């Protein structure tokens, strides 16, 4: 293995809620697992060549294991189904070292953590970190019903259990979160963190903006993108080789490049992780990723070739 990958073993597997499995991963050999910061994720290199990202939800201060929670997605492209069906206790698997695209902000005031469904996973690690640092926070776990919500027992027994609040839509009486009320007394130096389905995240972020939170105080991570597919054909030139290829209406730039022997490293294939980002030398991208900020997209110098397209007839990429 290279320096960025590790071999781990499934030490414990728990069906923690309806269609959610929680895996504790330990080193398969004598190597130690690197420490990680709250918000980090790992890549799982699954059978069949699939690579998928999952947030670490264990206490960052707890060495010796990585914990991840995976929802069996009915619209899975193979990743979550493979995890549920093949990663059993004792199974060995290759993972990446942790990467963090969703860190806690340095300093600042109170943190409001919102996890929707399986989006609770990075929030648990954040809660542990904030607790250890003796910083003010609230953790709001939103779901359909308790049977669809993993980690309830762990959170109920956590040393910060008094800062955990659950909100369920499909209970009697329904008890959904009221974001305006929850953020009503927030100070000017407080921050909002949110992860979950896109609709849930948009709802929380829109409410936070309405309550006066600036974009710099709203932090989010998409774990699944709602991708827009198809579009007009255009040409892509790979500058390193001079090779040129037509990208069809229903294929990605990455797929077109593969046809001419140029393989791009990819992971999520949904414009979420940033693995496939390429530098744009000429042309204007049509950004469809969820990885870049609006400011980064406006610069038009990077493109996620797994999902984005072109607004100009021709793109020249530094690849």
From TrEMBL:
> Which GO-annotated molecular functions does the record name?
2 iron, 2 sulfur cluster binding; metal ion binding; methyltransferase activity; oxidoreductase activity
What residues does the 2Fe-2S ferredoxin-type domain cover? 232-319
FAD-binding FR-type domain span: 3-105
**Keyword Methyltransferase tagged:** yes
Q: Which InterPro entries match?
A: 2Fe-2S_ferredoxin-like_sf, 2Fe-2S_ferredoxin-type, 2Fe2S_fd_BS, Beta-grasp_dom_sf, FAD-bd_FR_type, FNR_nucleotide-bd, MRET, Riboflavin_synthase-like_b-brl
Question: Which Pfam family, an example, fits this chain?
Answer: Fer2
Q: Which GO terms describe its biological process?
A: methylation
Where do the coiled-coil regions begin and end? none
Q: Which UniProt keywords apply?
A: 2Fe-2S, Flavoprotein, Iron, Iron-sulfur, Metal-binding, Methyltransferase, Oxidoreductase, Transferase
PANTHER family for this protein: CARNITINE MONOOXYGENASE REDUCTASE SUBUNIT (PTHR47354:SF1), NADH OXIDOREDUCTASE HCR (PTHR47354)
User: What is this protein identified as?
Assistant: Vanillate O-demethylase oxidoreductase
Query: Lineage in the entry?
Result: Bacteria, Pseudomonadati, Pseudomonadota, Betaproteobacteria, Burkholderiales
């Amino acid at each position: 293995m290279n320096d960025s990958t590790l071999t781990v073993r499934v030490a414990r597997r728990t069906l923690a809620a309806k269609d959610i499995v929680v895996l504790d991963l330990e080193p398969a050999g004598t190597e130690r697992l690197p420490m990680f910061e709250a918000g980090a994720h790992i890549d799982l290199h699954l059978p069949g060549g699939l690579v998928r990202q999952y947030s670490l939800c264990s206490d960052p201060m707890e060495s010796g294991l990585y914990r991840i929670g995976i929802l069996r997605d009915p619209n899975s492209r193979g990743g979550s189904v493979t995890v549920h069906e093949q990663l059993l206790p004792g199974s060995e698997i290759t993972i990446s070292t942790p990467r963090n695209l969703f860190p806690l902000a340095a300093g600042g005031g109170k943190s409001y953590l919102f996890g929707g469904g399986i989006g609770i996973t990075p929030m648990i690690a954040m809660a542990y970190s904030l607790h250890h640092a003796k910083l003010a926070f609230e953790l709001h776990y939103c779901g359909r019903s308790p049977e669809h919500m993993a980690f309830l027992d762990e959170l109920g027994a956590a040393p910060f259990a008094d800062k955990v609040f659950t909100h369920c839509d499909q209970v009697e009486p329904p008890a959904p979160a009221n974001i305006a009320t929850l953020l009503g007394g927030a100070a000017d130096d407080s921050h909002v963190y949110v992860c979950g389905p896109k609709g849930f995240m948009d709802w929380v972020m829109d409410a936070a903006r309405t309550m006066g939170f600036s974009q710099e105080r709203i932090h989010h991570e998409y774990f699944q993108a709602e991708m827009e597919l198809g579009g007009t054909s255009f040409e892509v030139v790979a500058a390193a080789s001079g090779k040129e290829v037509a990208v069809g209406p229903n294929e990605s730039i990455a797929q077109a490049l593969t046809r001419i022997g140029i393989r791009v490293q990819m992971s999520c294939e949904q414009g979420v992780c940033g693995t496939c980002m390429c530098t744009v030398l000429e042309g204007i991208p049509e950004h469809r990723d969820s990885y870049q900020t609006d400011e980064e997209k406006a610069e038009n110098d990077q493109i996620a070739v797994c999902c984005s397209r072109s607004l100009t007839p021709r793109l020249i990429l530094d690849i």
